[in-house]
Amino acid sequence: MSGEESLSGLVARVQRLEDELAIIRKLTAYGPLVDAGEADAAAALWTEDGVYDVEGWRMAGRAELRAMVRSDAHQDIIGGGSAHFFGPPHIERIEGDEAEAFCESILVRHEDGKFYIWRAGVHRIELRRTSDGWCVTRRVTRPLNGSAEARKLVTGMPGS
């Protein structure tokens, strides 16, 4: 292997590591942002036309994502104390400016002086590199309730 080939291989590996770190940082920012009620910053995690499909609720575009964070339902959740906690994302694919990952999460709520897990979910997430860095183009979330649909999201099978 020539020095030039070694250098190009190293550059490619460093780019992959930088991309993975940027994607992880983007995805794990969601929980703290929505727990703080930061609607604009949370919506900016998606592309302008990005989609968030969560348990029968489909939001398309940043305006709908902002509205979700500002909604009375969401404000009630965070007003009582909450932690949207993402497990480490598993990045399955980075090809050029497109990527795909999945992770699991829990939503912890505070009630009567105690914390409890209110929801556990799985997320299949598609991303695109933009002028603002990596952004979510599509995120599908389903409850980890034993359903075949949730298991499909983990495996990336068609229909997920």
TrEMBL record:
InterPro entries, per the entry: NTF2-like_dom_sf, SnoaL-like
Pfam families, alphabetized: SnoaL_4
SnoaL-like domain mapped to chain residues: 15-139
Protein name: Nuclear transport factor 2 family protein
The species this protein was found in: Nocardia flavorosea
